[in-house]
Amino acid sequence: MHHSQTRPKPTATSNSSSLCHSRPSCSSRHATVVLSCKASSAPAAQYEPVPAVRGGLPYIGVLHRTPVNQLFSFVEREFAETGVRCLDLQVFGRHAVYTRHPEDIGSVLHNPSKWTKAPLMMKRLDRWLGEGLVSELDPARHAAARDVLAPAFRAQSVKDLVPLFADVGQQLAAALLSQAGSTIELEPITRRATLDVIGRAGFGHDFGALQMAQQQQQQQDQVDIVKLFDDILDTSMLLIMNPPLPDALVPGHSSYCAAVDALEAVALRLLQERRQQGISPQNRSLLSFMLAAQQAAPGGLVSDKHIRDQLMTFMLAGSDTSATSLAFCLYELARRPQAQQAVRQELQQVLEDTPIDQLQPDAFSSLPYLTGCINECLRLYPAAPGLARIPQQDAVLGPHLVPQGLPVVVDFFSCHRHPEFWPRASEWLPERWLPSNLKALGPQHPDAFMPFSAGSRSCIGRYFAMLEMQVMLAVVLRQLSFAAVGGEGSGQAAAAQSFTLKSRDGLRVVPTAAGR
Ligand code: HEM
Question: Which Pfam families did the record assign (predicted)?
């Protein structure tokens, strides 16, 4: 996720080279700037200007060379070619500093009071996400909202969801088997599966998204949420670039508004249904926890609008991210028959022939090779490829000074491919995550692997997502083999963003029943 704004000036001493820093289109890479820095203990220190991305044009930046939805891949190539730590990227006349260095990423994310979320970006998504957990800006309200939801994400609550994950995994396997021998696109079908998971686990409601894909015709009262997201995601990505245009002129805005309104109607219907059914202690969904908090403190934080915002947030945050990771994982395995075989052997060794519904939840977290495959996809294809933060005062990133207010994008996509911190960085190597290989092949810095972010705004659903993916992949790969269309290969799949990360060219595979 990206955000940029007109570049504020650093607190600079009168020095001719400081002008170079405040004019980031200057491509001088080595000039040293003398600045007085509020963030440094020294009254004056020497800093290097953040180099500008090469070949940018004054207003549109690099958009003549790359589409908006491929900025992260573009920046990664630029990092790889120049070897720099940070880059200044201008789009629509607004600047943002991208950093791929784990030290910077750690220091930004672990200091949320000094580095806040970008208010302008959140404001432009207000109609959709409101003040849900991802977009809430007020630290006290955020902490209180997170406390309400936290019980649903405790280890035991998530382990109790294993039968549900397995059931949806089974439906996914059946949907794939029904198309055995044909070419299928993975992303649309994994999006349906994870939406069904969050519907049932989070809201106690079955969206029937997987089933809907198999019906010839949609029934009259059915809403296909996956289609609504198609209308929301591209436009929301443009909105978070914060273009200096009224929202109504942003391409796709009217379909975006219509889809947001339709999604809101779904959220409000869920709320009404759950309220009518009443809350039972057995129902430990997110929606039930919120309704219980509302009943306990009427007029407090948890209003109906608050619940609406959280439902809208979780429909996306709890489904799109895991769907991307699942799809890339199946695709990478399809391209590597040996790795696929190794997963199947591990499944056989650890799970034997025990029916899935009789397995203990802990069995799924004892699959190191499968978990290595998931981690390797989270590394190369992080569903949230980067996050924007705003420094509340002048800040130092390595040799660079970042002036107060200038957005910084912590670039997980590039960090996860940084050759200094990842041996054999460009290779997809599930074995790098095996305990015996971690030292030699794993991340060479504690903050080099950040798919779920870090600190108080890190992913609340991290453990949920990992167990969901472990169970669903185990269920699917026990029953199906996959071959990649276009053949086997070891290079990376091309990535793009549509709010979250997606593939650029589709992830096509041919499924067959395992053992055939
Ligand atoms: C592979 C799967 C996932 C990945 C890679 C992922 C990644 C992330 C990242 C990077 C953030 C930080 C976003 C930011 O600071 O703006 C985040 C936040 C969040 N995630 Fe996830 N996520 C995943 C799955 C899930 C699931 C399954 C759920 C819910 C069931 C979930 C719910 C959330 C929520 C609510 C937040 C906001 C947390 C806060 O600000 O307190 N995520 N996620």
Answer: p450
Instruction: Tell me which residues of the chain have a pLDDT lower than 50.
Output: 1-6, 10-40, 42-44
Going from the Cα of 201 to the center of ligand 1, the distance in angstroms, rounded, reads: 16
- Please report, for the chain, the start and end positions of each structural domain, with discontinuous segments joined by +: 16-119+386-415, 139-384+453-513
Tokens (6 digits) for 515: 């053992």
- What are the tens digits of pLDDT across the range 314-348? 999 999 999 999 999 999 999 999 999 999 999 99
Q: Specify the ligand 1 atom closest to the Cα of 383.
A: 5
ipTM reported for the complex, 2 dp: 0.99
**The domain defined by 139-384+453-513 carries CATH number 1.10.630.10:** yes
377 belongs to an annotated ligand binding site: no
Closest atom of ligand 1 to 458 CA is 12
The domain 16-119+386-415 is placed in CATH, from the list 3.30.43.20, 3.40.830.10, 3.90.550.10, 3.80.10.10, at: 3.30.43.20
Q: Which residues pair with 117 in a beta bridge?
A: 389
Q: Are 400 and 97 in contact (CB under 8 A)?
A: yes
**Contact (Cβ atoms closer than 8 angstroms) between residue 161 and residue 168:** no
The pTM for the full model equals 0.92
